[in-house]
Structures are given as C-alpha cells and as structure tokens.
Amino acid sequence: MQSIWVGRVFFWGTVLCILGFPIAVIGYRLGWLTLDRSFTLIVGTFFASCVFLAIASIVCLVAFWQSNVQLLKVGSFACLMLLLPVGGLMTQLVKGKALPKIHDITTDRENPPIFQAVQPLRKATDNTLDYGGEAVAKLQQISYPNLAPLDTGLDSQKSFQVSLELAKELGWEVIAADSERGRLEAVDTTLLWGFKDDVVIRISETGIGSRIDLRSVSRVGLSDLGANAERIQAFIDLYRSRYPAS
User: Fold this and answer.
1) Quick one: 188 and 134 in the same domain?
2) How far is CA 224 from CA 102, 144, 171, 198, in A?
3) DSSP-based three-state secondary structure for 170
4) Which of 72, 97, 122 marks a domain boundary?
5) Strand (E) positions, 110-236?
C-alpha cells in the first residue's frame, strides 16, 4: 500500500515536472502566456523538479535500506525521469551565467552594419536596434574573441550573390536585398521558441576582393544565450566550406 501511494505521488509529480517546459514553450508560441510568465513557469518547474529529485533520492536510500524492491523501483524511475528537466534546465542556467547579457552581435564592433528594412516589422516593445557602443563591444570581445569579418577574394557582386544564397539556405527570411549598396537584411525564426531575430549583411570592396560583415540582433530578451554569435558563425562556416580558397 505504501509503495502504491508513493508511486502515485511521484508519477504525477514527475509528469508535471516533465511537462512544465513544453507547456511554457507551447503556451508562449500560442499566445496564452507572456514571455515573462513562460520563464517563471520554467523556473518554477526547475525548482519543483529539484525538490522531487531530492525526495526521490531519499526514497531510494530508504527502500534500499529496508530491502523494499518495489519502492526502490518507484524511486529509481522517478529519479531517472526527473533528471531530464533538472539536467536540461541546469545546462541552460549554467550557459546563461557563463555568457554575457547581450543580444546584439556583430563582426564589426567599431562600425556595425545598420538596420533599415526590418524596422517596420518590429514592435515598439522590442529591443532597440541602436548599437550599445563600447560596453557591448567589450562584452562581445570577451566571450566571442574570434568572431571577425569575412575577408574574401571574390568581388562585391559575387560576394553579395553568395551571401544571398547562403542566407536562404540557412532558412533566413530575406526582407531586403540591394546588390548595388551591398546590403541584405533578413529575419531568422528560432526553432523552439519561435523568436524573431534580425540579421543584416554588409558587403564592401577591399583592395583584393571584398569584406562581408554581419550583425544579428534579438528582438526580445536581455541575453541571447549565444544564439546570435552562433548564427553569424554558422554563416561564416558555411561560406568557408563552399569557398575555402577565396
């Protein structure tokens, strides 16, 4: 009887903890929850999962001491299931602590490309597209020191065409493409949360070819958890894989 009662408690507690994160994401994407409330639910899920995991661990120890095989199975199952939300959310928390609280990343910190075409698509409550200046540049330099402009031997028109093709291949929604000015603006929608992040590509002539600069900005959130830097790096890596000698 004791094992049945404990099993039911842990079963439903574990189910609620496991469902907390997907409910938060789905609720936000469907407009049922604001972003703040979604994150509050995730934090609550994390702490609840930690409490249940601690209790389940104690149950396992007691069951082992009492040689209660059935209770040990219940506690062990709960521990394994609860490691999913605890481990997953802990990974994100650690990542968030390690990365700077910035959401604007560029390959040119002194003269970052500016946005124009995406302006009408943004809400008044979205993050500003005005660059944060030296403070943001220093934080980026510390965390992403290797993020740099892409220098290529291709002429600017060829670099523009390649950049346009790669942006589409990466799944970005191209909003504006001006080959004469060497500018391209796009929107990338994140897979999980459906966040809209804006991207601008600027191509300029050099003495031996052209230079490609990118900038990626999140519309919401103080920290992007490295998403913008990863997006820019993905573009650079794809470019280099296609044109290694350029």
Assistant:
1) yes
2) 7, 13, 19, 12
3) coil
4) 97
5) 150-152, 173-178, 183-189, 196-206, 209-218
In this structure, the number of other CB atoms found within 10 A of the CB of residue 213 comes to 20
| pTM for this prediction | 0.82
Angle between helices 35-66 and 69-98 (to 10 degrees): 140
Give me the domain span that covers residue 74. Answer: 2-97
3-class state of residue 34 by DSSP: coil
CB neighbours of 156 closer than 8 A, spacing ≥ 6?
Answer: 182, 203, 204, 205, 210
Structure tokens at 177: 């493409």
Do residues 8 and 40 lie in contact, with contact meaning Cβ atoms separated by under 8 Å?
no
Q: Extract the tokens encoding 56.
A: 């389940």
Question: Count of CB atoms within 10 A of residue 238's CB?
Answer: 16
- Residues 115, 62 share a domain: no
Provide the residue type at 42 as one letter: I
Co-location of 112 and 79 in the same domain:
no
Looking at the structure, tell me whether residues 174 and 219 fall in a common domain.
yes
pLDDT tens over the chain, length 246 residues: 455 666 666 677 778 888 888 899 899 888 898 888 988 998 888 888 888 888 888 888 887 888 878 777 777 877 888 887 788 777 777 766 778 899 999 999 999 999 999 999 999 999 999 999 999 999 999 999 999 999 998 999 999 999 999 999 999 999 999 999 999 999 999 988 889 999 999 999 998 899 999 999 999 988 898 999 999 999 999 999 887 766
Please state whether beta strands 196-206 and 209-218 pair in parallel, antiparallel, or not at all (unpaired).
antiparallel
- For residues 92 and 174, membership in a common domain is answered with no
